[in-house]
Specification:
Four copies of one chain form a homotetramer.
Chain A lengths: L2 H5 L7 H17 L15 H10 L1 H25 L7 H16 L1 H9 L4 H28 L13 H18 L4 H10 L13
Helix pairs in contact in A: 2-4, 2-5, 4-6, 4-7, 5-7, 6-7, 7-8, 7-9, 8-9
Chain lengths: ~200, ~200, ~200, ~200
């Protein structure tokens, strides 16, 4: 049998794929907080020293916040696309695993950007990972829509979805570019991007 | 279509929202223990040195204990309120994500308070996060009760619930205030607050 | 209404309690590995130095192994007892949370015992936590059997179960005592105890 | 009753075993990223220094990547084999727990290999753990196929499955051997092995 055709085989129930994916998403958003380290104080009772210590790690809070919202957005989009599938096959499972691999990597660029917010390489690395994540998600979504879509949902796609999906990589890459020109703009691009996806696709009614 | 109205759209099943939320809650309560560090000993076999080391981190144990019970209480209340919803929409999902964001942040103020129990800023930061968490939960609960409540449960609300809910922020903020006056009182306020919610609401029979 | 009686109220489905508990158990057993630190080498390519480094943390591997099996045993017993319940009430949920609190604490005494295997206090602390965990589990089990048992399962209890349950605390406390007399015996007691529970209760047929 | 026979008793539903296993798998793949530490920079804004720091931890990225794919492959195989079982008994649960124990251990050899990629002992330890994991999985699979298989699936086994399963240990052990001869070859063997299992078994149609 054709090697590539074998991936389209299998008729796996979606339950455990959702359970595994939900687990990964839940752990990522919760692990992100581990990168926020309590500042070390010379005088443990000194309010001013602690206040300064907390202000100093503000970029890490910001980095955590942006990542949290982005991962939640991915979870929601993932939730939406999986519902279109009538079942899972091996191709979908591996695309899903690849997508989750990039998701589970998110704490690293988050920590990098949080720790070196004035280093263009650190800030642009964050955007590159997010761009790749989005592209992988788009491939997963396209695979499901083409091969595994529930017959009753076929043709009901939101016509704006493709353009909105493209907005993700475009905005993240704009952030990547801005990281080398004007750093605060990069943070803005990253923070704004998930807002394109906080409303539901138009197709459901 | 109106931007805000779009949030009330969507007819999402509750299963994955519960799975994601349960995952986040389970990870938070379990991650809390990572902040309890084994004391470093000069003589690894010295019982007295270890005993002293453990006594020294008593505030961290206390901080862990209070956080554990508070997060469990939030989980239980979350469990209760989600059961009222007939389904989920985008507004509920984002309010839920925002609430979970503050929950997943809990290990940070817990570590802060555990490490600097005699620093008013550290102790009051804990209470402020808990107040904000409770307010976000109340907004989520109000949103569900107003927009998504199962018809058969409508009007069966526990009349004492609103007052009990308010007790949360009031007590946490009392702890925040006491942190600047008499520190042990702040710990007492934090520890006592979840006890208001350990019995079920009166409405179910 | 009587304060204590309110705990027996509520008719909560078991699904989310199982999901939350399974999540906590799964995270505990997996977090245990984080205490196994890669040894620091002067010469990164030196095989002998690495071999010595790994031998030196053998007590940590042993401590990890014992904890892993004990937590799996608790998960299995928890699994069994929850199946007896027809539904959950607030009393059961709080006993369950208290039990999970001690379970989620396990990584701390595990790290303590792994790092200071020749410190009687560290080794006995492990046994004390396990004893308290077992007692809390017995209380949870007794509560379910008395108040929430499915009618069709009532009276079908394994008569050996009570004695086997008691074996847990007795063996753990023997380990605690031996920690002060002859340390290796304590490790043996801890390792042997879960083996009492690896076969199923006799009642099912 | 015969001691060994008791393990074949019990008629446990598969739901919580799957939930527990999925939780463990999800946590392992996500925890792996914690071993990727942000490089420490003297000048936080220096792009070159950060680039060098990231290049220096390339072996850790590679180690993370290999482990991620291997654990996903185990999850998928686990998913497949559990579906064959009509229910669970104690023997299966303990074999499953033993298998999960080795899985949850994976972050340690991953960190070891990532940190000391030019140390033959570190690189071969990775392969040995993977070999043992695969053997434990084969024992679990054999136990299910012999004792718990759903009647309608019996006899439908993929005849190539046994040979493919053996490919796992053979390739991992080749990697272990190569670690002592030519290190890059060991990495190749480890990376290639999961690719034997990315297509589904032939039996389903």
């Amino acid at each position: 049998m054709n090697f590539f055709k074998r991936f389209s085989q299998g008729n796996l129930p979606l339950g455990r794929i959702e359970a595994f994916s939900d687990g990964v998403f839940a752990i990522i958003v919760t692990l992100l907080v581990l990168d926020l380290k309590v500042p070390q104080l010379k005088d443990p009772t000194d309010v001013n020293e602690l206040a300064h210590g907390l202000v100093k790690i503000l970029p890490q809070f910001l980095s955590w916040l942006i990542s949290f919202i982005i991962v939640c957005k991915f979870w929601l989009n993932h939730h939406n696309i999986i519902r279109y599938a009538k079942h899972a096959n091996y191709g979908m499972i591996w695309l899903n695993s690849l997508f989750l691999m990039f998701q589970s990597f998110v704490p690293f660029p988050t920590a990098l950007m949080g720790q070196y917010p004035s280093n263009p390489l650190a800030v642009s690395a964050f955007g590159i990972i997010m761009t790749l994540s989005t592209l992988l998600f788009m491939i997963l979504a396209a695979y499901i829509t083409r091969n595994l879509i529930k017959p009753e949902l076929d043709g009901k796609k939101d016509p704006t979805l493709k353009w909105r999906s493209l907005a993700g990589p475009v905005f993240y890459m704009s952030g990547v570019t801005m990281a080398w020109i004007y750093l605060p703009a990069a943070f803005c691009f990253y923070a704004v991007t998930p807002l394109f996806f906080i409303t539901p696709p138009k197709m459901r009614h």
